[in-house]
Amino acid sequence: MPRLKQNEVAAAMPPRTPKQLANDARLRARKGMPSIHVKKNLLGPDDVAEPQNDISISTTGKAEATRAGIDIIQPGKLEEKAADEAFMNELVEIQIEADDDPNAPLFVHTAHNGVTQYIKRGEPQTIKRRFLYSLVAAKQAKLVCSFGKNSEGKEFNRLQGPSRCTHQVVVITDSDKGRQMYKTWMQMP
Fold first, then answer.
1. Residue 135 is inside which H or E element, if any?
2. Which of 22, 141, 142, 181 is deepest in the core (most CB within 10 A)?
3. Rounded CA gap, 130 and 136, in Å?
4. What is the pLDDT of residues 29-40, one digit of tens each?
5. 61: alpha, beta or left, given left = phi > 0 and alpha = psi -120 to 50?
6. For the chain, give me the number of helices (H) and strands (E)?
């Protein structure tokens, strides 16, 4: 099929309406203008312990407010958050057991807060504890339905959903505190 020339394409297109042309001119005129930035304190000017909320409001296009991507931590909780972040970034050695399913992927995908990590099955690997948490938190639930009549003759319908971890993970090396947290995570529903 032969290619159309640019003037042939333009001739085939319906002409733009005056509304469309006015909208194009409005968008071109506002292209370099900055957006309005609103900084709003949640409680009041005297309270500095609470975080501030930054919102950017677009001056062009749809009227929508976008929040800043950074979470501001209260000063009183900074040490606790820093200790938790340091703990979750410690290195642990794990191994993901092979799956019975022949179509199971060789590399298991795990992610935590938008950071992706692939782990090869059957080989010991050193990863950050946050990815171990994501592996343990991934649960598979299978629902079992049982119905019938009980001894009194009343009908019943029970839907039970036992859940188990999606991947069989073996922790090879970890600290004592890390092993305690692993046990806690394994008991999560």
1. helix 129-137
2. 181
3. 10
4. 766 665 555 555
5. left
6. 5, 12
